[in-house]
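Forgive a beginner's question, but would it be possible to get a protein, spelled out as residues, together with the matching structure tokens, please?
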Amino acid sequence: MSTTRPFAADDRDPDPGAGGGVQSDETQSREPEATRRLQLTGESGIVPRARDFTRQALRDWGWLPAATADRMAAAEDVLLVVSELVTNACLHAGGPEELLLRRSPKSLRLEVVDGGGGEPAPRTPHRAGRPGGHGMFIVQRLCLDWGVVRNTDRPGKTVWAELAAPS
């Protein structure tokens, strides 16, 4: 786990509206938005809603429908990681506040913001036959990297994970 990279490795500007990441109207009309945000505070059915939101983003970005088995596996990995991160926020952090998806040419970064104080970590030692507690182990195995960024201005954190874009 890495906690030292609050933004995706290939992000030049963490806030697309802050200057360097601004696109022209022509570019925006040809290419779907690279960042998607879903508010989850006070919602019911959060995990399926987060998966549906992510599935639609993957469709818009051309990951789905998948042309090959490898591309399908990449999309399924994204949906599984979203489910695990959002479920962990529900179970251990008082519920997620927001899901953020950030697409780049090389990766997809998933961020789940919550108000909880705990630190997610893979269960050690991992026991495959033991029920529950597999979420962060799955995230660790499927992702290029993942970590936690603490909020500086209020309680809570952002748990992030990066997956490789399909080739």
